[in-house]
Amino acid sequence: MADAASRLKGLLEQVLGVLLPVRIRAWDGSQAGPPTAPLLVVRNRRALRRLLWKPGELGLARAWVAGDLDIEGDLYTTLDLLSGLIWERDDDARTLAQALREPEVRAAVRGLVRLAGPALPPAPPREEVRRRGHLHTRRTDRRAISHHYDVGNDFYEIVLGPSMVYSCAYWESPDGSLEDAQRDKLELVCRKLGLRPGQRLLDVGCGWGSMAVHAAREHGVSVVGITLSQEQAAYARKRIAEEGLTDRIEIRVQDYRDVRDGPYDAISSIGMAEHVGAERYLAYAEDLHALLRSGGRLLNHQIARRPQRDESAYHLDEFIDSYVFPDGELAPLGTTVTQLERAGFEVRDVESIREHYALTLREWVANLEADWPRAMRLAGPGRARVWLLYMAASALAFEHNRIGVNQVLAVRTPDDSGASGMPLRARTWN
Fold first, then answer.
1. Residue 23's closest CA among 9, 43, 3?
2. From CA 427, how far away is CA 89, in angstroms rounded?
3. Residue 163 and residue 174: Cα distance in Å, rounded?
4. I need a labelling partner for 190 at 20 to 30 A (CA). Which of 33, 129, 230, 427 fits?
5. Residue 212 to residue 216: CA distance in whole angstroms
6. How many helices (H) and strands (E) does the chain have?
């Protein structure tokens, strides 16, 4: 009888209808596949049971998070090779349901079941979110934000570095430093907003306070930063006190729907709108519009997905939704611009910085890998593995143009005069 790796590889290739581009090492120590290919380690039969119980991305994610699957060699190369089987299957590629109509495929699945053994499918890893209640209520949004951001400030310090900025940096060159690129991003946002001393800035989704500190210290504005994360708020307040900026910055644990103390001269929303949800996006844009003074500016920095030929067929990424950003939704750039305009904004500038996010994510992955044992102690092995996979896969998604990120500058243009307050040559920030 063939060893476990050869049997597993052959059966999987029959089911998928393609040759696996990786080498497999099975739980019995056997290996099969191209000798120079990256190594996919199947540590136990439990990994196979997870895949059989939940075929596709979610089963793979569960096996990865639980440590039943691993990768030896370059993580990016392996994910790139596997992406054609998971994320980038051609439209005409056969689905599993279609494949199961073929007798030889059904026989291969029965072979996988025998190879997996008779035990029941294991429970999902504890890091997996179980959705409860309606999407995007105050309660469910607070719970989703807590899942992602209340992992521990010490863990995020490892990943993000001293800047503690958890959004796409702005790189002058790939050889620059993450800290310089994050500082340049914050400065870019401030200049697009045209911040001047004495103005009021609302920072929606303020994170650990980096934007608030930069805007107050470098541009002399007063800032209100809001977040739903208790850990972020505590960290930001301590940081602000150390900077001597408590007279100019207020950090609130508050939902954007509950802010009532406008008008503000400017609003920054950096990496926050992805959490709003498609059904609530127009109301979100209307809320921000109402909080701005006439002539005030909004800088919306947001990840975008590519539009589908059939938008009704779009579905959330199972791994991201279950382990990373519960209830998060990405929209095409055109949809975001349309919703901002429907809310009353005049969109004045759109800048795509997709390549910048790939560079940023690779730096975060390098930070995590460099301090991996401590990261696992702080967040737990499963959560650390979630972040490693999510950031590495996201870097590839940006590099291959599966997703993008854009800064959209919009103005609450006065109804009477139509004067935007923008310079004739607006891109002076370049």
1. 9
2. 40
3. 18
4. 230
5. 6
6. 17, 11
CA distance 117 to 105: 19
Longest dimension (CA), the chain: 82
Which ranges constitute the DSSP H helices of 28-137? 45-53, 57-65, 75-86, 96-99, 103-116
Q: What is the pLDDT of residues 222-256, one digit of tens each?
A: 999 999 999 999 999 999 999 999 999 999 999 99
- 253, 141 Cβ separation under 8 angstroms: no
The string of pLDDT tens digits covering residues 71-80 is 999 999 999 9
- The answer to whether the CB of 271 falls within 8 A of the CB of 330 is no
Rg of the chain over CA atoms, in angstroms? 24
Candidates 394, 400, 393, 402; CA nearest to 75 is: 393
Do 222 and 248 form a contact (C-beta atoms < 8 A)? Answer: yes
pLDDT at 79: 93
Which domains does the chain show, CATH number per domain? 4-116 (3.30.1050), 138-429 (3.40.50.150)
pLDDT value of position 150: 63
Phi, psi of 72 (to 5 degrees): -115, 130
Q: Given its phi and psi angles, is residue 45 left (phi above 0), alpha (psi -120 to 50 degrees) or beta?
A: alpha
Which residues touch 114 (CB under 8 Å, ≥6 apart)? none
- CA 293 distance to own-chain centroid: 31
Cβ 178 vs Cβ 169: under 8 Å: yes
For residues 288 and 84, the model is more confident at 288
Lookup: tokens for 59: 């089963």
End-to-end Cα, the chain, rounded Å: 66
Q: Which two tokens stand for residue 153?
A: 């400030």
H or E element in which residue 39 lies:
strand 39-42
pLDDT at 89 over 70: no
From 53, 187, 28, 25, select the one nearest 113 (Cα to Cα): 53
3-class SS of residue 30:
coil
Using the structure block, give the residue that is written with the tokens 């954007």.
256
Q: Is residue 52 scored above 70 in pLDDT?
A: yes
